[in-house]
């Protein structure tokens, strides 16, 4: 038996072994013009495998780059685009800069803190509406994190703490009644025929 585990590793497995065999066959074609036509045919087949990518900019360019990678950069054809260098595969990725934000109450998230900082700069009805909306969102987030019921007073105290006690929540605000669904309610109901 000929198992894939015994075969040579594919440089781009998303295209499959048959496309790789087509690329390998390009090396056996001696006539350069015939090899160029065959390479374009392979590119067309590669494009048909992922038709949803046709909307991506530089779609054909990527396909030709993939052909060069699959041919180990040794295929002698007329590329319509400058083929990539071998160094691109050995290049280390750039370091991703992670945010180093300290969040007081993590379960509410950084966006909640930013919204509260914005509410501090507002006045009147705008501020009241934003406080009410943020408090309702905080209640939902709290219940997602804790799953137990929470008193509105706890949310108000947390809101004031996150704002650095610069916001005072009007006690006449009533938060919406958020209930976490019971496990039996989470299952889909069967449709009646």
Please give a structural write-up.
It is a single chain. By secondary structure, this protein is mainly alpha-helical. The protein folds into two domains: 82 residues; 73 residues, no CATH class. 50% of the residues lie in helices and 0% in strands. The protein has eight helices and no strands. The longest helix has 23 residues. It is elongated and about 85 Å long. The protein starts with 15 loop residues before the first helix and ends in a 7-residue tail after the last helix.
Short description:
The protein has helices at residues 16-26, 32-49, 59-70, 87-90, 109-121, 124-146, 152-162, 183-186. By secondary structure, the chain is mostly helical. 16% of the residues are buried.
Protein traits:
mainly alpha, 2 domains, 0% strand
Residue share in helix:
40-55%
Largest sheet: none
Please tally the helical runs, counting DSSP H or I stretches of 4 or more residues: 8
End-to-end gap: 49 Å
Order of helices and strands: HHHHHHHH
By helix and strand content, what is the structural category? mainly alpha
**Proportion in β-strands:** under 5%
Describe the oligomeric state of these chains in a short phrase: single chain
Mean pLDDT: 85
């Amino acid at each position: 038996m000929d198992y894939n585990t015994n075969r040579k590793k594919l440089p781009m497995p998303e295209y499959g072994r048959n496309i790789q065999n087509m690329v390998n066959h390009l090396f056996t074609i001696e006539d350069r013009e015939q090899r160029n036509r065959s390479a374009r045919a392979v590119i067309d087949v590669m494009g048909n495998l992922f038709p949803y990518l046709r909307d991506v900019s530089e779609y054909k360019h990527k396909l030709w780059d993939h052909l060069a990678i699959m041919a180990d950069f040794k295929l002698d054809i007329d590329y319509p685009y400058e083929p990539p260098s071998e160094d691109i595969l050995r290049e280390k990725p750039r370091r991703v800069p992670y945010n180093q934000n300290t969040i007081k109450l993590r379960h509410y998230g950084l966006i909640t803190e930013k919204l509260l900082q914005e509410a501090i700069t507002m006045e009147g009805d705008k501020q009241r509406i934003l406080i009410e909306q943020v408090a309702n969102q905080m209640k939902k987030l709290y219940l997602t994190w804790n799953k137990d019921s929470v008193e509105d007073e706890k949310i108000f105290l947390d809101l004031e703490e996150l704002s650095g006690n610069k916001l005072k929540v009007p006690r006449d605000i009533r938060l919406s009644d958020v209930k976490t669904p019971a496990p039996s309610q989470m299952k889909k109901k069967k449709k009646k025929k």
